[in-house]
Design a protein that fits this description.
With about 160 residues, the protein is an alpha+beta fold. The chain has one domain: Hotdog Thioesterase (Thiol Ester Dehydrase, Chain A, Roll). The protein is about 30% helix and about 40% strand.
Amino acid sequence: MTGEKTVCDSRLEMAQAMFPSDANRVGNVHGGSIMKLIDTAAGIAAMRHCRTNVVTASMDRLDFYEPVFVGELVILRAAINYVGSTSMEVGVRVEAEDLMTGDVRHTNSAYLTLVSLGENRRPTAVPKIIPQTDDEKRRFEEGRIRAQRRKELRKKRNKE
């Protein structure tokens, strides 16, 4: 698919209550449960952007700042930061809300690269992104730099 889209066209906010099945025996939500939600949010934002199937190619970084507990609401905000020819970098911010007090904490941040797949399950072109706000322009430039680093690392690994 070609064309151009804004960041708002594919932005996603989703929420999920955390239950005992998401946690260890003392009530801390498993990191893997959070990772799955992050991957889901990133995948939906990427599909909204390109309107094709997508696959996760990499997760550059996933930082855990604070624990999440059973009974809290996990809120995920995903947005396209940068677009290459067939791939997109999606940033995901995770917050936990204590539903009894209303307190909200930033618990995680992650950057994922997703690839758009055509009908033949091969990478296919994605629409360009038009950053509009200063924050979107900053995220675009930072995403461009990370994408270049990823490309250089792949080349280095392929030579080894």
